[in-house]
Amino acid sequence: MTDPVKITVDGKPMEATAGEMLIKAAQDGGTYIPRFCWHERMNPVGMCRMCLVEVDTPRGPMIITACTNPVAEGMVVDTQSDTVKKAQEAILEFLLANHPLDCPICDKGGECPLQDQAMSHGPGESRFVEIKRNFEKPIPVSDLVLLDRERCILCARCTRFSDEISGDPLIEFMERGNVTEVNTFPDHPFSSYFSGNTVQICPVGALTAKPYRFRARPWDLTMVESSSLHDTAHPRISIHASQNQILRFLGVDNDATNHGWLSDKDRFGFQYIESEERLTSPLVNRGGELVEVTWNEALDIVANRIELIRDEDGGGAFGVIGGARGTNEDAYALSKFALVVLETNNVDARVGDDLASHFLAATVDRALISDLDDADTILVWGPDLKEEHPTLYLRARRAAQELGVTLIVVHPRATGLDDRATHKLTYRPGGGFALLDDIAKGEHPEVSQALAAGKVVAIVGQACHADGPKLAESVAALARNKASSVRILPLARRGNIYGALDMGLAPDLLPGRVAIDVMGCANLSQSWGEISRTPGRDTRRILEGVEAGEVRCLFLVGADPVRDLPNPKVAVEGLEVAEYVVSIDLFLNDSNRSADLILPASAFAEKEGTVTNLEGRVQKVNAIRPGPGQSRPDWSILADIAERAGRPLGLAAPETIAKEISEVAPAYTGITWDHLEWEQRDGAVVPLSGSPSIRHIPVALAGPRAPRAALTLHVARTMYDDGVLMRQSPSLHPLAPGAVAHLNPIDARKLGAQPGNPVHVVTKQGEGEFSVVIDEHTPAGVVYVPFNQPGGASLGTDPVVRVKAVGK
Amino acid sequence: MTTPLVLTRRMTEHPTDSHTIERYEATGGYQQAPRALGMTRDELVAMVKGSGLLGRGGAAFSTGLKWSLLAPARPAYLVINADESEPGTFKDRQLLERDPHQMLEGAIIAAVANEVHHAFIYIRGEYPKPARRVQAAIDAAYAKGYLGQGIFGTGYDLEVTVHLGAGAYICGEETALINSLEGLRGEPRLKPPYFPAVKGLYMQPTIVNNVETVSDLPYILEMGAEAYAGLGHPLDTGTFMTSISGHVNRPGNYELPHGIPWGELIYEVAGGIRGDRELKAWIPGGASAPWFVPGVHLDQQITKDVCVEAGSMLGSGAVIVMDETTCMIRAAERIVRFFAHESCGQCTPCREGTTWLEMVLHRIETGQGRQVDLDLMLDVSDGISIGLAWPPKMTTICPLGPSAVSPIISLRDYFRDEVMEHVELGACPLERAEAVA
Asked: What does the pLDDT look like over A100-134, one tens digit per residue?
């Protein structure tokens, strides 16, 4: 760190960081300089000229923009001089000259920087009597965002965001001078996963989002802060509602995670909460028909069934899948419910597509998101971050672009980070282990060198279903082997999966990152009573048990294995013959439609609690309104069942559950709600200090040999898909790519496949028809099929694939 | 008056083939570049500083000083600014068209002095013939080994690339020119941090010099800094090219020593006012410059300092003469419309203010003026150029916006009555006069 720089602003001495812009230094010192184009998270452009101030120079006072001039030692600044005031009034009169002043019908009215600064710094009235500039308005620039060019003040915030931050330079200035406008290029809509950020940072009402347009006035909104669960980085948000209706999410600047940015899935994915199809009453299956019953009836039915099966066959006859969609408090209640009431370790929050639980929950040297900023090298071997981990995508992109970090991307096809990657390696699906061997042998010296140099952050996960769960851990092991200093971020993508694992929702974990062993069970028994010491079944084996009749009673908690399993045959067949299925969920889905008992749960934003993100950061989420109908939070449903089944859990409210977690779960010692609510809104990373929780050392595991096949199948997730929450979000669901198969032009020619025409795709585990997309970003010999799409069949995990043009 | 012909001697003496390499070499050309190759950077910079040469593009900044500010990072680039777009200026066109090798040799000297191995010549798109002549000259120089690898038999490499602009005035501003050259929107960059000498083309140290400026270099080497400085005025050395246009009998380009009075330029060099009418006003240095009027400025010397003291500038050497039949409101409107049209649109005051001024001027000229309009225009101008001082206190990134204010200042200073006459009459008083004439 360099010494602070001393400056004087309006006679007040301040200390500033060398190199920072005057506008920021003044703001941190308590002097607000008005601005439109300057944004703390973007490079300055000095266009609006609102931040003009006077500085003393040897040649007298000089007028400069505070947003483009760095502080210098001894700088004397006047933000209040007559010259500055004249300039500020002039700029505002100029900006308003062509502004439509339709504030009464503008979404921004009431929270508009132009309105606010016109009042605080403007001349009060306009002398402009000429005819104002006219544009056709509004025009859609994407499926989600509309543009009103008359309101636009040309501050370049949106264009800079899309270019510098999200890497989708799809909106630009067109024309020049007085007729300059923001627009998209012909036939290239602003189809960015991050388009909503431009609406949030627009300093006027020029950009509006379809889901919020004309739905509220800012002064009618109630708001709470929370963290989004669509992205396991848990970007910080604020939830806005009017008359108990949730209307929008805005990004909140959290230094540790999202810098204020949100993906459109995080921003607009709230619509499912308001869906008309939410379950509002317990339903019991009577001869194939779902019949509404009272909670009393429903709870008695499930409690009696539990007691019956437990007495006959013991805990091994139960299985619990899910628990990653709720809060840590819900997950803790479910964990305690499984062990204490069901007497089983057959519990898994991972739905068949995740890495090993110990690796995910408790790897040694786990990275923080902020480690990306001061890394020397970032290795991303896993999913396309832009599709599945948007917050990480933006941070990795920034690190490579602005901070000069070496970025290595390994993925079977193009990813959103490729244009900023220093090195990019591709491999054919199923060939991940072979590539890993090559790297270990030194066949990619540029990668070996980058991994050996300085601080390395390895972001590892499943790039495609064919990778299987072992590749990522082997990559982490290799990185640890090559690098002198490495931090690891193992990826999982389901809601609060990291919190669920930390609460023990895995067949080999107990709450607080404790293994199921003699010691762990003995410690937990002191608070929970005697518990089973046998590790349980994971999701796949639970479903196999259901099919074999060994697991007689299955709990699905916010889980839809028929849709979510990469190879769902076992779920379909198991659920068909299951003896008894209880579902706790928000919606009917493909897995619970024929369940025996369905219990309506509260959703995100309808309950308070804590959640844990992919770096182990615990943050508080909050309720803005109760759930619809008779829906209830998971923990309270489980507590009531337990009570009736004769094994009360002793759980009374989220806050007391959180207190119990901090006492029972070693990794969570010291976490308190008060801290998360007030002192640590950015969250706290667990464990806070040395704790007896496990530290998993990644091990290199043997994997399958690369398949010898003409074509291999790359199945990977996209941001928008046919998952139940997306299906219930009307703004986002139409954006899912649909049942498509991407073929390299060479393969398409060989197969005689035409764009838009159907091809038949067959693997060992599934088959279906897909519409052809000709795609140069998919290498020859690879077929890319986005996972879980509307109308798309499941193709399983085996990479060997055959493709035939339909009608050939 | 004896005119020391320097830049225009060859084209005057050999009007048919002054642009060919044969004629250029036969008249002493390409003798100085090899000499420069034998000199150090420090020697060359000192020599040009000593010559007192000021940039001829409009800003009149010391060329030697500019070179000495080049940051040490390499590669460094040289850009010859041939985007001559200031209204009324057409001198570079003649230099490019009639004596391209002179400019090219100057460019080689500038490149050598600044350790540049790739130079760019940015020519405005409206200059197809000059561009063809320059490209032919470059091809000839390559063929002779004066450009390319190992120029003049030395180990020095120099590539030269011609780039044509796409019709934006602002691309004559050096940082906008660099943006344009990089394929970006023609918008001026922020200073700081993008001083071309530090972070210019492709973020590398870059020297941007005007065509006329580099064309002077071979002569500074040939005659020596002191002899060159001896031409012209002690504070404003050498000769300068002036493009005189408007209501004079002999409009055109003239090469003159600095320091002659305005009256001599207008009445002797340019042959006086057409039809012996009265001189009403003239623009001394391109459309950006506040106007001069006969009652005040006719006897003043043409040098940078005298001109600035009188509240204007020599700029790019473009003199536009207006006689008594000219409506000053219409002249102002035309100039302001030009700047409004050419505003890049980045800065609020320029983007919105210039168009506003144009609208008000148009109203006054068409009989819709109000008593308050002159004060309104002055206040709007004040928002673009605080205090209406000279040189301007800009609220903008570049001087384009403040340039549009110049005619308003001139109206205030010399033609307030004419504005009020328009307002009171509800029409342009000169329209009828013109119709009669």
From this structure: 999 999 999 999 999 999 999 999 999 999 999 99
A87·B386 Cβ contact <8 A: yes
Picking from B192, B345, B376, the nearest residue to A127 by CB comes out as B376
Alpha helices in A613-734 (DSSP H): 634-644, 654-664, 673-674, 724-727
CA–CA distance from B364 to each of A93, A313, A676, B358, B428 (Å)? Answer: 21, 98, 65, 10, 8
What is the C-alpha to C-alpha distance for residues A694 and A616, in angstroms, rounded to an integer? 14
pLDDT tens profile A464-478? 999 988 999 999 999
DSSP-based three-state secondary structure for A486: strand
- Indicate whether A606 pLDDT > 50: yes
CATH 3.10.20.600 residue ranges in chain B? 233-323
Q: Do B348 and A177 touch (CB under 8 A)?
A: no
Cα separation, A298 vs A280, whole angstroms: 13
Q: Treating both helix axes as pointing N-terminal to C-terminal, what angle do A445-452 and A470-482 enclose, rounded to 10 degrees?
A: 70
Measured in angstroms, the CA of A24 and the nearest CA of chain B are apart by 17
Separation between Cα atoms, residue A284 and residue A278, nearest integer Å: 16
Residue type, A198: T
Q: CA-CA distance, B286 to B317, in Å (whole number)?
A: 7
CB A790 within 8 A of CB A772: no
Strand A52-57, strand A60-65: pairing: antiparallel
What residue of B is the nearest CA neighbor of A84? B386
Helix axes B128-144, B100-113, angle to 10 degrees: 60
Q: Which residue of A has its CA nearest to B348?
A: A48
Distant-in-sequence, close-in-space partners of A479: CB < 8 Å, separation ≥ 6: A379, A451, A456, A458, A460, A486, A488
Give B-chain residues touching A160 at CB under 8 angstroms. none
pLDDT, average across residues B292-303: 95
Residue ranges with strand state E in A349-434: 377-381, 406-410, 423-425
Judging contacts by C-beta atoms under 8 Å, the chain A residues touching residue B343 are 176-178
Taking contacts as CB-CB distances below 8 angstroms, the residues of chain A near B354 are 177-178
Which residues of chain A lie closer than 8 angstroms to B352, CB-CB?
A: 94-95, 97-98, 178
> pLDDT category, A535, cuts 50, 70, 90?
very high
* Chain A contact for B166 (CB, 8 A cutoff): no
Q: Which residues of A touch B340 (CB under 8 A)?
A: 177-178
- Angle B250-B255-B259 from CA coordinates, rounded to 5°: 100
Looking at the partner chain, which of A45, A50, A178 has a beta carbon nearest the beta carbon of B355?
A: A178
Q: Do B345 and A50 touch (CB under 8 A)?
A: no
- Of residues A216, A105, A193, the one with CA closest to residue A143: A193
Look up residue A710 and give its two tokens.
Answer: 């003409």
DSSP letters for A40-55: TTS-----S-TTEEEE
Ramachandran category for residue B202: left, alpha or beta (phi over 0 → left; psi -120 to 50 → alpha): left
Instruction: Tell how strand B318-323 and strand B239-246 pair up.
Output: parallel
Residue B241, strand partner residues: B255
Which pLDDT score, from 0 to 100, does residue B437 have?
Answer: 45
Q: What single DSSP character describes residue B158?
A: B
Residue B193 distance to chain A (closest CA, Å): 8
List chain A residues with CB under 8 Å of B363: 130
CATH domain A712-805 topology: Barwin-like endoglucanases (2.40.40)
Match domain B9-225 to its CATH number in 3.30.470.30, 3.90.1150.10, 3.30.200.20, 3.40.50.11540: 3.40.50.11540
Q: What ipTM does this complex have?
A: 0.95
pLDDT score, position B235: 79
Options 3.10.20.600, 3.10.20.740, 3.20.20.370, 3.30.70.600; CATH for B233-323 is 3.10.20.600
